[in-house]
Design a protein that fits this description.
Elements: E1 3-8, H1 13-23, E2 31-38, E3 42-49, H2 52-58, E4 69-75, E5 90-91, E6 97-102, H3 108-117, H4 127-142, H5 145-155, E7 160-166, E8 173-178, E9 183-186, E10 191-194, E11 206-209, E12 215-218, E13 223-226, E14 232-233, E15 238-239, H6 255-261, H7 263-271, E16 275-276, E17 279-280, H8 289-294, E18 297-302, H9 304-321, E19 325-329, H10 330-333, E20 344-350, H11 356-367, E21 371-376, H12 382-386, E22 389-392, H13 405-425, H14 430-440, H15 443-451, H16 454-464, E23 469-474, H17 477-493, E24 496-501, E25 518-523, H18 529-541, E26 545-551, H19 555-559, E27 564-568, H20 576-594
Parallel strand pairs: 18-19, 18-20, 20-21, 21-22, 23-24, 23-25, 25-26, 26-27
Antiparallel strand pairs: 1-4, 1-10, 2-3, 2-4, 5-6, 6-7, 7-8, 8-12, 9-10, 9-11, 11-15, 12-13, 13-14, 16-17
Helix pairs in contact: 1-2, 3-4, 4-5, 7-13, 7-15, 9-13, 9-17, 15-20, 16-20, 17-20
The structure holds 2-deoxy-2-amino glucitol-6-phosphate.
2-deoxy-2-amino glucitol-6-phosphate (AGP) binds at residues 303-306, 350-352, 355, 358, 401-403, 491, 608-609.
Length: 612
């Protein structure tokens, strides 16, 4: 949510900043801006409402700005509508300081009042400008920028990643963070600051993650990091394993389509190294056998699609572990006085590892004594670093706002974790354990078989893209999978869509089914297939058009009653949603394509939600 980049080096900064912003555009895309400093021209700022392309055109690709040091920002509006004025960077009243900000300053009103009383004038409606002005207020007193930044971060409340330029400090960028990611990039004669590795991956894979409360002073030849007491801190460097091609479309029309197609490989990378000699090996876990046996329940916490993974996980884990599993929306969990203690295993799921609601819920669970285990895609992200244990999904960068390969790999890793825990607890029969492990090896090929038939799904999308209301219905694992199918459709195609447990329809929702309503009926969960058929008959009787998803062995039966049928290969029950979700992703993708939607950057959304 919002993207920050900073560069200081020997090259012209503006084109590098713009390039970084283009790579981070999925984080927010309602307005953008850059500030570049040079000895001759001083601080130059350009910002505008709209996409990065608008900014780039204004600056002729960056040629209009001179200077080898600068900061840039792509915004997802929170305080103040998307506009030229509210776009970042924000500049202090004297024009001496420019600042970009990710996050929310919760006490900005009170500080703004204070600064207004000091006679300071504001030009925007944002909480971020308040910080730029407060910074100048303190700087004017001490004429020491580090001291001023330190005073600011002790005065403000909320979350922030800051990139700052002060004209009195030629050649130095300043950064500070709390609850909003900031990464330092190291190079030979240049350094970077960014909220996302993708922004600088073309230049360096040598990085360090800033921690909460830290301030960094970044020049072309050095980076010095301080803690919140202004004591120097030595940072541990990390090497990013993927390269720039992973963050590019590589010939595909959209990142979402590329990422859907990458799922077989992503599944292989997430699962195969963790199975050796027929056993699930989770060496990255520090959990002991004794601790596992001591848990009396599992809570899963997540948002959005990651929450939907948790919903599938509830069915699979309860079945495998015979322990109660509850799934919580992270934004609800922290305010519901949760029943967590040291006998609770708290599984936190997040692609980005930066979702603020999820992180706050995880902290609450930890505070209550729960043992936290995070399933995360982004290496070194805040959730990954704060959890007691972390299992990475190794899906590589996911750029499309609508998640696909991250969902699949989260699910795969959660299934593996379930199997691993069941083995420790002795709640899975050896034959079933072996059957699941064996079946895991077949999933990528089965996914490939589904992806080879995208034309069929494209055809169905062409038949149904004009509907303005869709219901996804299913039972058990199909219900959980339907939640994700429905979210995919609504977030990128803007069609109103709901997912319902089929049995619940008759308790009210069936009143919405009328002639022509599209119902996507999910019937891949074999034990309840006959009930799924009955529900199809029910909605057909009320005039619905039914697009059914089932397994190859039930295809013929389903064809007798549904209007259209998609089928996927059969597999072990716990993996059926891993296959079933693929056509649902493709259906959403092609429907959005037919409707002319901006698939990778749907309206109002951002990839990583770092505000509450
Ligand atoms: C799904 O397509 C969305 N991008 C969204 O629901 C997402 O899953 C949610 O915001 C959680 O993000 P996280 O996995 O990065 O925590």
């Amino acid at each position: 949510m919002c993207g920050i980049i900073g560069y200081v080096g020997q090259e012209q900064a503006a084109p590098i900043l713009l390039q970084g912003l283009f790579r981070m555009e999925y984080r927010g895309y309602d307005s953008a801006g850059v500030a570049v400093w040079s000895q001759e021209k001083g601080l130059q700022v350009e910002k505008t409402k709209g996409r990065i392309q608008v900014l780039s055109d204004l600056l002729h690709g960056g040629d209009d700005m001179e200077g080898t040091m600068g900061i840039g920002h792509t915004r997802w509006a929170t305080h103040g509508e998307p506009s030229d004025i509210n776009a970042h960077p924000h500049v202090s009243e004297s024009g001496n300081i420019a600042l970009v900000h990710n996050g929310i300053i919760e006490n900005y009103m009170e500080i703004k009042e204070f600064l207004l009383h000091q006679g300071i004038h504001f030009s925007s409606d944002t909480d971020s400008e308040v910080v730029a002005q407060l910074l100048e207020y303190y700087y004017d007193k001490s004429h020491d920028m580090l001291d001023a930044v330190s005073r600011v971060i002790h005065r403000i409340q909320g979350s922030y990643g800051f990139g700052i330029i002060c004209s009195d400090y030629p050649g130095s960028l300043i950064a500070a963070r709390k609850d909003s990611p900031l990464i330092l990039g190291y190079g030979d004669g240049f350094h970077f600051l960014a909220s996302d590795v993708t922004a600088m991956i073309q230049y360096t894979r040598d990085i360090a993650y800033m921690d909460d409360g830290e301030i960094a002073v970044i020049t072309a030849n050095s980076i010095q990091v301080y803690n919140n007491m202004l004591e120097p801190v030595k940072k541990e460097h990390q090497h990013v394993v993927w390269d720039v091609s992973a963050a590019e479309k590589g010939g595909y029309p959209h990142f979402m389509f590329k990422e859907i197609m990458e799922q077989p490989e992503a599944f292989r990378k997430a699962v195969f190294p963790r199975i050796r000699d027929g056993r699930v090996m989770l060496e990255d876990l520090k959990l002991t056998t004794w601790q596992i046996r001591d848990f009396n329940k599992i809570d899963i916490i997540a948002c959005g699609s990651s929450y939907h993974v948790g919903m599938v996980g509830k069915y699979n884990l309860e079945r495998l572990l015979r322990r109660p599993v509850e799934v919580f929306l992270a934004s609800e969990f922290r305010y519901c006085d949760p029943l967590v203690d040291k006998k609770t295993l708290v599984i936190v799921i997040s692609q980005s590892g930066e979702t603020l609601d999820t992180m706050a819920a995880m902290r609450e669970a930890k505070r209550l004594g729960g043992r936290t285990l995070a399933i995360v895609n982004v290496m070194g992200s805040s959730i990954a670093r704060e959890a007691d244990d972390v299992l990475y999904t190794w899906a590589g960068p996911e750029i499309a706002v609508a998640t696909t390969k991250a969902y699949s790999t989260q699910l795969a890793v959660l299934d593996l974790l379930g199997l691993y825990l069941a083995d420790v607890l002795g709640t899975v029969e050896p034959e079933e354990y072996d059957a699941i492990v064996k079946e895991a090896h077949t999933i990528p090929e089965k996914m490939e078989a589904i992806l080879a038939k995208t034309a069929d799904i494209q055809y169905f999308a062409s038949q149904y893209f004009n509907h303005d209301s869709v219901f996804f219905i299913g039972r058990n694992l199909d219900y959980a999978m339907g939640l994700e199918g429905s979210l995919k459709l609504k977030e990128i195609s803007y069609i109103h869509s709901e997912a319902y447990a089929s049995g619940e329809l008759k308790h009210g929702t069936i009143s919405l089914i009328e002639k022509g309503t599209l119902v996507v009926a999910l019937g891949t969960y074999e034990p309840l297939f006959d009930k799924a058929m009955s529900n199809v008959v029910e909605v057909k009787a009320r005039g619905a058009e039914v697009l059914a998803l089932t397994t190859d062995n039930f295809r013929e039966k389903m064809e007798k009653i549904a209007d259209s049928v998609i089928s996927v290969p059969c597999t072990h029950q716990i993996f059926q949603p891993s296959l079933g979700v693929v056509p649902l992703q493709l259906f959403a993708y092609y429907v959005a394509l037919h409707r002319g939607c901006d698939i990778d950057k749907p309206r109002n959304l951002a990839k990583s939600v770092t505000v509450e």
